[in-house]
Amino acid sequence: MNSSALAWVVNPALPIVLPLLAAFLLGPVTRVSAFVGRLLGPLTLAICVWLIGELWLAHGGEPFAVAIGTFAAPLGIVLYVDRIALLFAAAVPIFALLFWPWEVSGERATRESALLLILVASATGLALSGDIFNIYVFYELVAVASFGLAASNATGQAYVATIRYLLQSATGSLLALIGIAILYLKTGTLTLAHLAELAPSTLHDPLGLAAFALLLIGFGVKAEMFPVNTWVPEVYATAPARVSALLAGLVSKLAVLVVVRLLVLVFNQPEASQLLLVLGALGMISGELSAWRARDFSRMLAFSSIGQLGMVFIAFALPGEIGVLAGLAVALHHLVLKSGLFALAARWGGSMEALAGLGRRSPLAGAIYVLFALSMIGVPPLPGFWAKLVVLVALAQQGPLELAAMGAILVVTAIEANYLFRLAVVLYRKGGAAAVPASGVPAPALGAGLVAPLLCLTLLAATVAIVPVTEGLRSVARQTVDVAGYVRTVFPSAQPPLARKEWP
Amino acid sequence: MIPFSLETILYTCAIGMVVIGVFGLVLSNHLLRMVLALSVAEAGGNLLVVLAGYRGGAIAPIIGYAAPGTLMVDPVPQALVLTSIVIGVGVEALAVAILIRVYRAYGSLDLRLLVERMQGDMAKAAGIPRTTSTHAPAGERPLPPIPVGARHQPDAVGHLAPEVQS
Amino acid sequence: MTSLDLLFLVSGLTLVVALVLGRQRLTAPLLVVLYGVQFAALIHTGTLFGDPVAASFGITVLDQPMHWRYDALSWFFAMITIGAGFFSAWYAAGVWQSAYAKGGQSPWLFHVALAANVFAMLVLLGSGDFLSLFLGWELVSWASFLLMALGGPASGRAALRYLTYAFSGAMAILGAMALLYTQAGSLEYAQVAAAIPTLTNTQVWVLLALFGSGFGVKMGLLPFHLWQAAAYAETPGPGSAFFGAISSRMGLYAIMVVIVAMMGVTRLANMDVVFALVSARDLLAWIAALTIILPTFTALQQHDARYLLAWHGIGQGGYMLLGLVTGSAIGTAGGIMHVFNHATYQAALFMAVMAVVHRTGTADLNKLGGLVARMPLSFLVMLFGIIGLAGLPPMNGFVSKWMIYSALITDGMPLLFVAAIVGTLGTILSVYKLIHNMFLGQLRIEHEQVREAPLSMLAPMLALATLIFLSGLVPGPVLSWVAEVQRVVGLPVVNYSLGGVIDPRGSLDMLWLVGILMAGFGVGALVFFGFGGKSRRVHQLDNYAGGHFLTAQVRYQYSDNFYAGLMHLIGPWYRGAFRWLEEAISALVDLLSYAMHWIYRSVQPLVFLLAATVAMLVWAGV
Description:
By secondary structure, chain A is mainly α. Chain A is built from 20 helices and 2 strands. Chain A has helices at 14-32, 34-59, 83-98, 107-128, 132-150, 156-187, 192-202, 206-220, 231-238, 241-266, 270-293, 297-316, 320-348, 358-361, 363-377, 383-396, 400-427, 446-464, 466-480, 483-490; strands at 64-67, 78-81. Chain B has a domain at 6-56 and 73-106: Helix Hairpins (Orthogonal Bundle), CATH 1.10.287. Chain B contains 4 helices and 2 strands. In chain B, a hairpin with a 5-residue loop joins strand 1 (151-154) and strand 2 (160-163).
């Protein structure tokens, strides 16, 4: 679409602004017409999906940068659109649509829809932003929206879990702010491209590493990084399953994206990668081992999510294009997988013993669970295996610390297989408690009933089309590690920007 | 010998506020105290950001305040801090709102008690029995508290059972 | 479309037919026919005596190609796989299936699982590089899990235990593959085989440990064998015959491809265990020897006939590995031939046991007896089976065991020879217990009306028994296949004849042997029937013992605590060391997970945040 009439559509600010606008208009519109109010949110999200498609088509996968308010970088804020940003920016409205609160009605629906729209807007902003403080602001917006969503069950335990999550998140954000302060102190700029240029000369010292450590803890809260992930089992077990799906699947990946941008562009040092590797390994081990003990489904998924995200961090800690490829493969696989499993948890939340025999009553749900479990532990030819293979092969080629991480991944996967299939055996037990339909079981919402099969189909499609999918991911990874290209896109003019700004 | 310039004192204060706030968060047992400690820490963090732009002997960054060419303090961190303060205010307001809901649900803001109750409610909602000895003590539940003024008559076994006066 | 494509196609078609049409009545015979077609397709590939055949398709993911091909080694194992599938499906297609369905189970799932197992094994056997090997390995593991989990709750538990072991083994294989890729730069067999001679001994030790553990779990080598007995015994009906016949040998196939063909027995003989006088080859040989002895003497104690046979299955795998690591022509031929022989008699034995279970309703050895009077043909099948299992002439088990013993003696490994003999002793003792407690002795009152096994079960049993005898009488054809396998794997080729092997240090000619044996029996029969007095048939209870006449109500059958004297001697040696090891590992995982869970249950998690921040700042050097 090259007509100038619709050229204004190709603006990355639109997918951020529109959901925000819709969120605040939702209240008044619902008061005028309830029907339009119910549809406003999904409509906005559909428009956002279309907008992101237009962004992709307009530039065909080549990166471009847009300065907000015509203030050019490094003074102004830049929105940077490349393949990885578009990938995650597209995932946000799609998954928000999948997990839209259709079954809630009335005042509560308006509140939750508004919060979800704010989450979508700020998450899109996180993916598209090219300025570190802008990222911080969007990150806080995501946090506030997620606090509201986490408490949406309105039970006592949900509130306690939310306040503990809030305190942990706010403390982490404070440390991230201090990290940003250190960054600004050393380099005098907040634009990621400018930071990438100045990093080799200013940030390769203890203070720079300290800034990285602080930023990592700050953004690691949402990314379920060890040791700031203790909120995860509490929140995922007390929030509604679709909120847990969004937090575990979508929001965590966006936080990981932020960490990856920082790692690739600004902190491209082996010590930073090592720190990420160690924290990822600790997270993976602690998460999967705790999942082994879990006795209810939501908490098992929460711990398993911590474990998988630990593996994502290990993957991203590998140097070069292969690291980003491995991390992307595991992260995207987990996005589809965890969302699908939490969609199942909408009906299966609760004690796992109560699920005995459920696989015989609803064979489709049982089969979907088994397929998800197989992909999670990495059984070929499902996509989980390929993701894990890339990680393992890349780890084996590095030093002794990475070999230890590889061994940890292998041991932990065996434990994972045990607890996942412990549940599968329970599901197919004869004469179990759930084998006979109970009279008081609430009917599943339209969304929850369709989402899990849909995501399962996505997984199967990725299995069949594994070659194009991996080649596509490889091109995304190649573009992501191209730091020189990033700087060139943001600063197209040949002459270098000011090294450190000198004000009169 | 560390020179006691204004800058050093300010940095010490900022970092000190952060440390006080974080230790208050970590050592505190009452949720409201934790929120207050968080606000102290955030104030310290904001001060640190402002300090990142400080230049010794410079004036406030307002155009037209002095002759062009006079050294000004870096205005960017001050803009950042404005945003950051607003974020902090919003988060604290949300935190206090949630605290009110917590208090209404559980009647207390003591962290240890709340965590215990939360775990108990989560387990009950999931239908999982809690089997450690603190949650399921062996033997009979203790008798209900004996009301004031009840007459005590030992029953056949020798327990004192209350006879409540009507 | 190559002949290998055709084989995969037919096998996949069998699976699809089982899935789609499985609930119809006529599907089971159709499936049996399809297994026969698979066998024909296998022969059509002509890869036993000819060149390797490649499949026409392949996938390349992330620069890693996957392709499939069949050579003589694949042919050998595939022949056994399809044969085992054929006989199991034949057995299941008749009366057994109706009884199974009447018991509330689903024969459809059984046939699907069986077809999936055969298909997965054929895919595994055709692997042309490590990636397709792993793909096939995982398919086989999960197909086995499906077939194992079909019984009641006991089989679910056993299947879960199998899964944990199998998946840990698979992870070891994956780790070894990653390390191998780092060294060799590729996962193709040719490149890896070229790179292995350049590796240091330490690296080869690591690879040997990882691959050995991974493949050994499937094979049931010590100390990874604890899952196998319960899993195979609790599998419904002919499924356990199928598993006992071929399923563990997939591990042996992988060992032959990776360890024997690529690393080579000579390389292993040159690698010494640190601070010991043994080499890696000796270590493997002793692991095999212990695998022969310990499970066999565990089988002695079993009360359940299926468990007894399942424990024997574990033990016989040790013979195959022992034969392979001798590295000589006769020894390796014995090991490879033992795969075929074991498949035949293990399947026959399981089928006979299942026939007895079908007729009497129990497999408990203490509740059976005297069935030879009611089920003589089943007795005959079991007799052939146990003579084969014990390795006595004239059955085929004797040939392979003789070759292994001969290789052990002539290659100067007398202690291993003694270990093998002790294992055979245990085998003979426990199979005698099996046949005695089931068929010999006193018939129980409740089994008076038991009839012979139905024809649909008898036919495959008798066919297998005939096969056992014929391949024992004329081992030449089987040895020709074995020789082709040896040629492909790179082992010295055995010099075989129609009746056995030819070797300057000692030949074997089964034709002569069986002839002399039969002649001996003939002389005995002549004396007994010709010159002896006329015999009169009396009722079993028409007897007088210990002061009174025998009645049917009193139990005279000697079955419980069968080897009381032997157990008195060796009983204290049953310490359950491997079960202790398994429980110790479970307890360790439990402890670690409790510790991790404690972190997530803490009341004040910000302590961890603070500690981590301080630690990281210190690490950064601030």
